[in-house]
Each structure stands twice: as C-alpha cells, then as structure tokens.
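User: Before I run my own analysis I want an independent prediction to cross-check against. Here's the chain; please return only the structure tokens and, at the end, one sentence I can use as a sanity check.
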Amino acid sequence: MDSTKQLETEKISKLLWIYAWPAVISQVISSVYNICDRVFLGQYVGAFAIAGLAITLPIMNIIHAFGSLVGAGSSARMSIVLGRKDVRWAEKILGNSLLLTFFFGFIFVAGGYLFMNPILHAFGASEQTIAYAREYMYIVLPGMFFVTLTFNLCGLMRATGYPTKAMLILAGGAILNILLDALFIIGLDWGIAGAAWATTISMFISSIFSVVHFIPSSHHSRPATKPNRFNFRRPVVNASHAMPSGGSSSALPGQSSEAFICFRRHAWAPKMYIFRNILAIGISPFSMNVAGCAVVALLNSQLIRYGGDLAVGANGIVNSAIMILLMFFLGICQGMQPIAGYNYGAGHQHRLKEIYILTMQVTLAIAFLGLAVAMIFPESIIRCFTTDDDLVAIAIPALRYLTVFCPLIGYTVVNSQFFQSIDSPWIAIVTSLSRQVLFLIPMIFIVPSLCERLGYDGLTGVWLSCTISDLLGATLSTILLLTQLKVFRPGYVAPERKPRRERGPKPEKQ
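Assistant: Structure tokens:
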C-alpha cells in the first residue's frame, strides 16, 4: 500500500495533526528519559557518577550529530522522491542510508574503543570521574549505533507515511530505558553501568522493530512496473498500487501495518549521487549540533567570567525550560517535513505554501504562549528546578532575556526545517548556524564588554547577547526566505538530483 498517497489529497491541517503529534510526543518522552537517567544516578549512585555521565554527553552529542546527518538527510530526500512517484529511487535511498549509518557507526565504535582515555581526558575527565565515564562508554558505544540506526529508520517511516508507528518505536524505547534504569540501578545496584546497559538494550530492541518494518513480508509483492528507453523501471501509479484489494480508500498515513518501501536487493548498491544527496541535506542539522557543542563551551566561559558558577547553573536551568518549547517546535517541523517534501517533489505548489503557512502559524501560537508564561511566572518556572534563592535570583532575568524573542526562535526553526524539505541545503545550513555561530559567538564577547563600559552588569550583557542573536538570526532567515519564494509559484519544477543516465521520463502532473 502506498501510504503516502494521502499527502497530496488529504486536507493539510489534518495531515499536519496526524504527522506532528506523534513527533512531539516522541520528543517529550525522549527528554523525560534523559532527565530520568540523571535523577537515578544522582539519587542512587552519587555526584561523581553524574559528573562522569556529563563528560560523555558531548561525545554522545557528536555521535548524534552524525546520526542526524544521515537521518535528516535521508528522510527529507525520501519525501521529495516519493512526491515524484519514484519508488525504486526511494528504495535506493533506504539502502544507501543504512550503508552510511553502518559506515559512521563502525568509525565511532572502533575509534571510541581505541582512543577511549584520550577522548575522555580531552572532554574534562579527572582522576575521580574518568572511571565512571569509561565504564559507561565501554557499554554504551554499541548502543549509540543502535540509537542512530533507530532514529534514521524512524525518520524514514515518517517520510513513507507511518508517523504513529515511528512514535511508538521511539517512545517505547525511551519508556523501556526508564524501566531498565530502575531495575539495573536501583534493583540490581549496577551503578552507572546499569544506565549504560539500559540505554544499549532498549535501543537495540527499538532498532529491531525499526528494521523489521522495512523487511518485505512473504505476501508483499512489488507494484506494477514498466520499462522505458532508459532501461529504468519506473512504477506505474495506479489503483492497484495505491490500494491493495480489501483496503479502505479513507485510510490515513500511519494506519497501515505494511510498508510499501522495503529493503530490496538493488537498493544495497552504493550510489555516490545518493550519498551526496543525503549528506547535502543532512549537513544542516549536523552543523547545528556540532556548533552547539562549541558554542556552549564559549558561552559557559563567559558566564563564569561575569557571573561565576551560579550563572552557568542558571543558564542550564533556563535552557532546560526553553528546551520544552523547542521540542514542540521540532516535533511540529518533523510533522511538516514529509508533507512539504512530498508536495515539493510532486509539484503541488499550493499545498506546499499551505503547509508552510500552517506550520508557521501553529509554531508561533505555541511560542507566544510560552513567552507569556515565561514573562508572567518566571519564578515558578525556575523553582521547578532549584530552591536555591541565589540561583533563582540570577535565573529569573536570564529566563526573560532568553525568551523575549521566543517567537523569532520558532520562526527561524520553521524556516530552517522548511529549507531542508525543499532541497535547499546550503540555505538551511546558513539559517541553522546564523544564531549560534554567525551572531552569538561574536556577540558574547562584544556585548558584555560594551555593557561594562556603559556602566551595566557584564552578566546582563551575556544574556542580552543571546537576545540580539535571536533577532539577527530571524532577520537573516527572512532574507533567505525571500530568495526561495520561487518554490511557491505555479509551474515550479523541483530539480533532479541523480545522473542523467538514470533519469526516466519526468513524472506526469496529476
């Protein structure tokens, strides 16, 4: 069953709901599982265990960045190709994305084991914490491969019309991780090794479910195809392909139990143009994740300089609160991506414009609600994380400075994700990095110094630099959006991204 057919026929608002709510739930549950890891270790193992885990987090973030490089790129490319009704090309993307996942997974697992101690020392491990960090890394490194594999395949599930199933796999893995944390850390007293085993086992099980989804069943037959003069088998989009006998024409994406994009023998042949297509789109979230690690280090150094350790703690609290909003932004954008990518590839400009506007409206509504709550109840929010009065006093103005342009953050996130969906990777990269690299890095050095010269607090200058960066990032995002308005014009045709010898006749307009 072609589970993506509804992407070009169903009402846009209904599609966004169907695709967005599972992604939002997955984001929320995943963040809860990360918090639970720290709670279990802090309550039942000790402070050095948390410190050891904290040392491994930048390493995990880098591995996740490479996972997003493949996962985001392959899912965005898959949506565009399915919009062109090219099932064979979509199957090649599935196979080649797994080849890239295995390639990066091997590098990180092998490199991690070979250079474990130098890597941990480079990220700040001390004699007291390195034992915890090393024990955790030895167990969790293979688990990180399963994490990237699961996230990649779940992204492809959403792209092929199974958002609810992707959510169930991700959420199920996170919930299993929490239960295993309790069993291994509290029940069996395995310490930090228990947290590592919980992550590895839960993600291994999730990856099995993800892989099984794309394995063709014994009764699953390929759709009718016909050859053409390019010796290229192009799928015939007809009633028998779109709906199996006994199927309901009202079925929506995510309701079918059988994937129509499956592992095929031809899909495992490495294709450099597919690698390039995947990596070109995926480089945007990858760059954002890697840059985020570097920016955090620079920002923390400035916070310590102007406000001490409490300022770093305040920034951590505020970022945890903002992360809740960002999870909603990213979940909604993950729901938008397959809809926008499919209709971009299919040449349905009016539906592409409609999904962009609706996604922006929903995101901005949530952003303004979050802004109102942050401005009216800042102390209540901060005290959810700490009872220390000195820390609360520093975090309250920080929360206001960092959320005052929250709608602009949401606006920039939507634009960045939209640029990925319409195959504009370099525009997406600039948009993603504008706030964190182009503007925030110079601002965190210029603004605090300028504030002190004018007689103001340097710490206020650090917070203000984040606010200014949000404004400048949104401004640049608007300028870049204006350069891409051509994709909304009737008759615009998405460019091909494969060698001419493998191109068949252009898909017919429907």
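Sanity check: The mean pLDDT is 80.
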